[in-house]
Amino acid sequence: MNVHLDYFSRKETETGVVLNEVQRQAASHTDGALLLLASPGSGKTTTLIMRIGYLIEARGVRASRIKAVTFSRASAQDMKVRFNHLFPTLQQQTPDFSTIHSFAFEVVREYFHGKRMSYRMIEGGSDGENEQWGKTRILRDIYKRTNGDHPTDDQMEELTSYISFIKNKLIPHDRLSLAKCDVPKAETIYKEYEKFKQTGTAQLLVDYDDMLTIANEALSMEHALLNKFQLRYDYILTDESQDTSLVQHAIVEKLVRAHGNLYVVADDDQSIYTWRAAEPQYLLDFKQAYPQASILKMEQNYRSSPNIVDIANRFIKRNKNRYDKNMFTRNPEHRPIAITELPDYKYQAKYIVEKISDRNDLSEVAVLYRNNSSSIMLMNALDRAGIPFYMKDGDNRFFSHWVVEDILNFMRMTFNDKRPDILEKIHAKFNGYITKQQMAALMALSTDADMSVFDRLLKHVPLQEYQIKQLEAGKETFVQLQGAQPLAAIRTIREKLGYDKAIEKMCERLGFRKEYLIGILNTLEEIAEPLDTMEDFAKRLKFLEKSMKASKSNKKGSAVTLSTLHSAKGLEFNYVYMVDLVEGILPSNEDIKKYEKDQLDGMEEAVRLFYVGMTRARKELELLSYKIRDGEQVKPSQFVTDVRNIQNPPKEIGKPNLAGKPAIKQAGQIRPPVPYNPNAIRDSKQFAVGSRVKHRVFGSGDIVLILGDSVEIRFQSETKRLSVNICIEMGLLEPDAHDPVER
């Protein structure tokens, strides 16, 4: 028997780990480069760990000569724990599991020590954003000096992403235009930031991305240093390599140059971080860098049902710039992928609550979305229903966003219109047309402090004729808002006081995304809807902010997981709901515009992101879209249409049916004519939750949910979502004679 077959048979007895043929080939690979393309749920981590065990136990390699590189501390720790579990006798010989950043820091530390250079880290540890030399503090100061104003949280996030992108892509200073950034004077800020880190203090200041670029440069320039690290390891393994940046690849390439023993585990179909400088093309060019490399494909999925695996496998083939793989599974059949189109976005969170309220183990339920902003309405609805949740990557910046603060300041003005400091924050955001100079004049006034700020403006500050009328109207509106319900107050602020128009002008002038800001306002309306007072509204926002933070404690409890699609990679659940699947979100408007210009990269990454979401589900997957959002018509995501057409291929129009009669096309489906049913329900008012109906095909069932035009009916075999209008038009449903309500 071959050595590796004998070894893995023995390990199967010892550990219960059964490897398939491809996994055994991958785990027994020793010398030379290997690219292991691992489909979702194919057991990549187990295979990687078994390969390390094989090197140590079957090939006699010392554990200290093996370096396993992951790209998060959690992954490194998880890999170490799993290795110790499968190989308890090797705990004294644990290989070196680490992140690429921690390895780079080791190189940098040794490099600076040799050069006798003093340096200081400005990210992590005690050097937080409140520190004088913290990265956030430095960037905020430079932004203010450059633009004469404070940056928003969104601008800070975009600026730090821009800087990280430049470094990870190894973009030189004379080609910074290759990196796009909407932050005003971003290129100038970047150059000032780099200059300050090198000359602004007695010590060299270093951020996380600098660790990578400095390590790469040090290994390039210092041959003795490179030789030292090359001699330390005989085998290098990298995990999740589809998410690795150019500078990270460069470091690993230098490390393995002496022996070529590189073991790369990746899936080009799950590369979803190019916006963070990931280089999926590296995988496609692997044979160019390592001509003698072997390439293996782990295509068997152990996670999901065939209904999900087959559709996902066919869906990802929409992309062209990829390795051809054919994911399959031998798991038992389960339900088909459910596709639901709601009449309006406002029903989505309520629909989710209804769907998951009767689930026994909420830890097996996940709701996934592209943008963090989607989480607020979901969190609000779940909390009101008493359903615990865990928000994997909650973004508390929603509650401190300037739009939220603006609305609260408008509300504060209804309680106290004598405070010019409040008016100063919103004076340019409603239709009072107050200039900066007029506002400064008001702030400088020391008389009539007990008078309304509007009266003080009218009495003491020079105004144009048109301003007088607007300010009088504004004052009256604020008076009328006193004691108003919060939903009515927000709508008055947006419409009568002109906040929406002010937002639109700001978007045109500053490049903000209008749909994002309007989405925040609509979310605030959703939160405000059931509340009686503006005080209740402010308290609700504070409560939700605390709830988001507190949800971290539910990570291991029975709680629904809310996560972005990006953060869900690596996770799996029995029941997965993907929401906000409409054109403009997934794919985004930018993805669509670039695709129309034959720039395919953005659309292909959007396809991969959708694919990652689909493959998180073990048993049931539901895709949710809607027809209207924020009062405007929207289209379901083209990806949802793709899935629908793969799962239920459309029939040709005009093709005769079995009865020899022409088929009827309606709502994108082909249906044969339906005989007239005199007992059919013909009035939507006859639909009520709890009542029992009979369908001509599915039999009797109970109505469990009604949302707009959608009715959900629990039949004996399964639950179906039907269109109320189509059911009435075609006479598909009739009252069940055995309805307990009618007896």
Number of DSSP helices?
31
CATH first level of the largest domain: which class? Alpha Beta
Level-2 CATH architecture of the largest domain: 3-Layer(aba) Sandwich
Strand portion, in percent?
5-15%
The span between the termini is 73 Å
Q: What is the percent of helical residues?
A: 40-55%
Could you say what the CATH topology of the largest domain is called? Rossmann fold
Rounded to the nearest angstrom, the radius of gyration is: 30 Å
Mean pLDDT level: 85
Query: How many domain units?
Result: 5
Strand order of the largest sheet: 3-2-6-7-1-8
Please give the largest β-sheet: 6 strands, parallel
Task: Count all strands and give the number.
Answer: 23
Shape: flat
Structural class, by secondary structure, is alpha/beta
CATH superfamily of the largest domain: P-loop containing nucleotide triphosphate hydrolases
Which runs of at least 5 residues are low in confidence (pLDDT < 50)? 126-130, 653-673
